[in-house]
Design goal:
Blueprint: H1 2-11, E1 15-18, E2 21-24, E3 28-29, E4 36-45, H2 64-69, H3 75-81, E5 84-88, E6 93-101, E7 130-132, H4 135-138, E8 146-149, E9 154-157, E10 162-165, E11 184-191, H5 206-223, E12 247-261, H6 266-269, E13 279-283, E14 293-294, E15 307-312, E16 321-331, E17 335-338, E18 350-357, E19 362-379, E20 382-391, H7 394-405
Parallel strand pairs: 3-18, 14-19
Antiparallel strand pairs: 1-2, 4-6, 5-6, 5-12, 7-16, 8-9, 8-11, 9-10, 10-13, 11-12, 12-13, 15-16, 16-17, 17-20, 18-19, 19-20
Keywords: Glycoprotein, Hydrolase, Protease, Secreted, Serine protease homolog, Signal
Region (Disordered): 222-250
GO molecular function, one term: peptidase activity
Length: 414
């Protein structure tokens, strides 16, 4: 049943009822002119200490009320916030200054339409997540684009050598976190039933042994029908429970460099600014998997059912790829506020949509946001919790595109 449901979601056009007649709605990707972000001076900085502790739940961030008080951006502010740090595999670090050209500055404050109140939860009510167990889906697009970050987060492939994730997966606003100096990205692969046997002279890394052990533990629990989350029903195998002779494991690839916007740094913003909670990792060697293109985040009202989708490696389902979808509850200029069921570990996942591409009438998925995680924000003077995603605006599209290509020449339209 779960497999049928998701196949329908992935392949069926969106219909609405108008005057008692089913009418297909035309949801298409709209070409948007993107500002230019031009690289300026690159300065050498001291090597980071790599002493920060990873925090999968952010506190004290600029939330809904705070955003309503924010003034519209000025060009000088954008040049500062969109300058970026690059930290390399050998521990060296640089700062690249940028100039923003052709940006349409919106004087309207960053505001939301309504305020919602929720209790502290990352899974809201019945757990609606699907663990992807059928290998026919697991290694095919779009699920094959999801990756695991060695610091405990998720990410998504956006080029043959680049991964998009959340900034706080590698940096806490003051320093790079422990383990990010030797950062690794895990790509899902399948092993045949006999490939688990150790070849003569071959050695598994400690990380591979832990991943394999975690997978077998979860498989035994699923076989016994064990369900967690205090008796709430989980859709633990929503994309098929078919047994396969091939088992998933991670192929770990080293990260060559990491780039984060200066807007994420506390010494620039005075606090953690969730609007800039994104980072791009460049892999040391290219992968051979299909990746997902970037897209500019539309208004949620123009999305089919206001629905978003993402897949990641939730910590409570170790070794499993977990997929979910839900409607956007609220939005600001830079953030989606939603209640997609998600646990720590899925932070950094790429949120995507499936829309028609121009006159081609072909459906195409694109990344339109980065899942930042479960966060506490100020609402009417009280701390409330949301699951928050950072929208890819035209400016962020231009910056991420610059990081991928090294130049703005291929970043004119999103």
């Amino acid at each position: 049943m779960g497999r049928v449901l998701l196949l329908l979601l992935f392949s069926t056009p969106v219909w609405s009822l108008i005057n008692g007649i089913n009418v297909e709605q035309d949801f298409s990707w709209q070409l948007t002119r993107v500002p230019r972000i031009v690289k300026g001076k690159t300065l050498s900085l001291e090597s980071p200490k790599f002493e920060a502790s990873a925090k999968l739940e952010l506190r004290g961030v600029c939330g809904i009320e705070c955003q309503q008080r924010l003034p519209g951006p000025h060009l000088s502010d954008l040049n500062e916030l969109l300058s970026y740090e690059t930290v390399f595999e050998n521990g060296t670090r640089t700062l690249t200054e940028v100039n923003v050209l052709g940006a349409e500055l919106d004087p309207v404050a960053n505001a939301t339409t309504k305020v919602l109140s929720r209790r502290k939860r990352q899974v809201y009510g019945t757990d609606s997540r699907f663990s992807i167990s059928d290998t026919r889906f697991l290694t095919n697009f779009p699920f094959n684009t999801a990756v695991k970050i060695s610091t405990g987060c998720s990410g998504i492939l956006i080029s043959p050598k680049h991964v998009l994730t959340a900034a706080h997966c590698v940096h806490d606003g003051n320093d790079y976190i422990k383990g990010s100096k030797k950062l690794r990205v895990g790509l899902l692969r399948l092993k045949s039933r006999g490939s688990g046997k150790k070849r003569r002279g071959a050695r598994r890394s400690k990380r591979e042994e832990l991943d394999l052990k975690a997978y077998h533990t979860d498989a035994r629990q699923l076989k016994r029908g064990v369900r967690s989350r205090a008796g709430r029903r989980q859709k633990a195998s929503g994309l098929g429970e078919k047994k396969s002779e091939r088992k998933p494991s991670f192929q770990w690839t080293r990260v060559k460099s990491t780039q984060i916007p200066k807007g994420w740094l506390r010494d620039v913003t005075g606090d953690v600014a969730v609007d800039y909670d994104y980072a791009v990792l460049e892999l040391k060697r290219p992968h051979k998997k299909k990746y997902m293109d970037l897209g500019i985040s539309p208004n949620s009202k123009t999305m089919p059912g206001s629905m978003i989708h993402f897949s990641g490696f939730d910590a409570d389902r170790s070794g499993q790829l977990v997929y979910r979808f839900c409607s956007v509850s609220d939005e600001s200029r830079d953030l989606f506020y939603q209640h997609c069921d998600a646990e720590s570990g899925s932070t950094g996942s790429g949120i995507y949509l499936r829309l028609k591409e121009g006159d081609k009438k072909k459906w195409k998925r694109k990344i339109i946001a980065i899942y930042s995680g479960h966060q506490w924000v100020d609402v009417n003077g009280q701390q409330q919790d949301y699951n928050v995603a950072v929208r890819i605006t035209p400016l962020k599209y231009a910056q991420i595109c610059l990081w991928i290509h090294g130049t703005d020449e291929n970043c004119a339209q999103g």
